[in-house]
Amino acid sequence: MSQPIRDLMTRRVVKLPGNATIVDAARSLRDSDVGSIVVEEDGKLRGLVTDRDIAIRAVAEERDPRTTRLSEICSKDLVTLSADDETDRAVEIMRKRSVRRIPIVDHGKVVGILSLGDLAAERDSNSVLGQISSAAPNH
Questions:
Q1: Which three-class secondary structure state does DSSP give residue 138?
Q2: Which residues make Cβ contacts (< 8 Å) with residue 91, sequence separation at least 6?
Q3: What is the pLDDT of residues 102-124, one digit of tens each?
Q4: For the purposes of burial, counting CB atoms within 10 Å of the CB of 6, is it exposed (0-12), middle (13-18) or buried (19 or more)?
């Protein structure tokens, strides 16, 4: 059964500018215990960076994490949804686009992130992904 995305989305959004480095992003991911960083310029969404992006687009390419900018490695072809959109729509988009996170934008501002884990924890809390997504952070 579908429900508004606002009921499931993670409201804690970590944002960095495109000129921030990979080191800045890695520290923010760690310190904030989140899975993605929103890349913004002048208050506008420009991209999304995950730990996987850091591994695949930076480390595997032997880029210097102290000098490589997030604007160089972030995913830029993003689909966004509104907090009022239904979760069924998010599931359809995640399936079609093979994405695990969708920025939630209202009035031009990122207000949340909806992840595959958020959906799994709500829709099938007994699944392995649902249980992992609901577990306390492992620091």
A1: coil
A2: 119
A3: 999 999 999 999 999 888 877 55
A4: middle
Residue 18 tokens read as: 């495109």
Structure tokens given for 138: 């492992």
CA geometry: angle at 84 spanning 80 and 87, to 5°? 70
Q: What are phi and psi of 92, to 5 degrees?
A: -60, -45
- The encoded tokens of residue 85 equal 């959109």
The residues near 94 (Cβ < 8 Å, ≥ 6 apart) are 100, 102, 116, 119
Domain-wise residue ranges, the chain: 5-134
Would you call 48 exposed, middle or buried from its count of C-beta atoms within 10 A (0-12, 13-18, 19+)?
A: buried
Question: What ranges make up the beta strands (E) of 1-139?
Answer: 15-17, 36-41, 44-50, 101-106, 109-115
Q: Is the pTM of this model over 0.85?
A: no
- CATH architecture for residues 5-134: Roll (3.10)
DSSP-assigned letter for residue 18:
T
The residues with which 69 forms a beta bridge, in sequence order, are 21
What's the one-letter identity of residue 89? R
Reduced to 3 states (helix: H, G, I; strand: E, B; else coil), residue 58 is helix
